[in-house]
Amino acid sequence: MKLKFLGTGTSQGVPVIGCSCEVCTSSNPKDSRLRSSVMVTTDEDKKILIDCGPDFRQQMLTHKEDRVDIALLTHEHNDHVIGLDDMRPLIFKTGKDIPLYCSSRVADEVKNRFPYAFADEKYPGAPAFELHEIENNPFTVVDTEITPIEVIHFKIPVFGYKFKKLAYITDAGFISEAEKDKLKGLDVLILNCIRKSDPHPAHFILPDVIKLFEELKPEKLFLTHISHHLGLHNVEDKLLPSGMHLAYDGLEIIF
């Protein structure tokens, strides 16, 4: 299987509008971060998208992706769902609704934000989705077993997802001991890390991620959902403990 980072930035993206810091003005492509999303390609060449934010169209074109077989949503914040309307060309091409897998709360929010996609009589050109409400239990789609990981983002539960020995978690500030048990023995763990210091009420910062790396002991850990406050990629990546890396847009991981 393969995971490709379509975006590794926070809700504002990097560069941030109006910011002239060294990260936002960097010429290194690894310092430019679209909103966080990944594409998983299964052994059977099925495409599983995780989150569909405002940069979805640009991400698909930039990374030469032209298909989504199913989409998993972590939660309902705009930087993770508002690009769903841009799936229309994929829906028109196949003539099939895009299956969306998410919690019941997220499903309700998707229906509220895109009511025209669920209308009994859709206007010509409207997107169409097939909603599947999931709970915190493993499920199988496109011949792939997926295990949700429930984490807390400020005060709301958010799903991360585990495939084989890889887990992807974004927008987390707390992981319970029960959920940590699902994250032991991993080859690859991907965690959000918004900045180097100054505790955040909804996201992990670097000391939190280092502590989890030492506790869970994955073979490799990649940081994502990164803001311009974390620093320059080529500088900060070298300062991380061995086995930890900053992810960047376009990075591919085979697992």
UniProtKB/TrEMBL annotation:
<feature type="domain" description="Metallo-beta-lactamase">
    <location>
        <begin position="34"/>
        <end position="225"/>
    </location>
</feature>
<dbReference type="Pfam" id="PF12706">
    <property type="entry name" value="Lactamase_B_2"/>
</dbReference>
<protein>
    <submittedName>
        <fullName>MBL fold metallo-hydrolase</fullName>
    </submittedName>
</protein>
<dbReference type="InterPro" id="IPR001279">
    <property type="entry name" value="Metallo-B-lactamas"/>
</dbReference>
<dbReference type="InterPro" id="IPR036866">
    <property type="entry name" value="RibonucZ/Hydroxyglut_hydro"/>
</dbReference>
